[in-house]
Amino acid sequence: MLKFSKMHGLGNDFVVIDAINQSVQLTTEQIRFMADRHIGIGCDQLLLVENSDLKDVDFRYRIFNADGGEVSQCGNGARCFARYVRDNGLTTKDSIAVETASGVIYPILQADGQVCVDMGKPRFSPEQVPFNVAEQSNTYMLAVEPGRQVEIAALSMGNPHAVLLVDDVTTAPVGELGPKIENHQQFPERVNVGFMQLVDHEHIKLRVYERGSAETTACGTGACAAVVSGIRRGILGRQVSVLLPGGTLEISWPDENSSVWMTGPAQHVFDGEIAWATLNNL
Fold first, then answer.
1. Which protein family is it in (predicted)?
2. Residue ranges of the binding site for substrate
């Protein structure tokens, strides 16, 4: 049997698997099956907890989207990861160092149950996003169909993000523009797409169409990317409350040379087991 936990951060839900104390080798097909909400367990992403080979790093954190593709970063998942390793006795620390495919992050479990995560520094170079464009800029015009362009910010928070400023997230064309921008040829690794509504200097509303998962109730790196883009546009302060469909995240970016900090909840839902015989006979 393969043991797992179901967790969520503001409704962005995860299957979390301890790959330290059990042998885990999952195929893309098996991950897709487990993520399926009709015939599997159901999740936006599957998270693997592994040992890290890096010095002074506690764990390795691997993330797989519902389509089975491995990605570099997931902010809501990072909070759930930190809660999982502490609650399951894999560490006694309140602050841990976690290896991801895009670098080391530093989640901190707070006394009130919230988890604060040093998400690292944002990256703006088109090569680092990656985004195929001639010159770096704060915003870009992107052709989404013949005769139609949208203005986006493009940056990396360890994974690629495009952020659009909209008048009202309720009526924003997330389902229409999300997949068009996600799969746009100028984003060779695809992209997460954020639709940001400015409320005031310290508050925004946000919906995110995530690559490989479609729209989710919350996206931690998407919240970070939106706030950073708003600061660079000159419309946001350095500490912002981000209201997503699943709830609120607090994002701060102290200055241009600092990491972005994200604070929010991480909830355990249930523990379960799935038979390897089921997974091996798909």
1. Belongs to the diaminopimelate epimerase family.
2. 12, 45, 65, 75-76, 159, 192, 210-211, 220-221
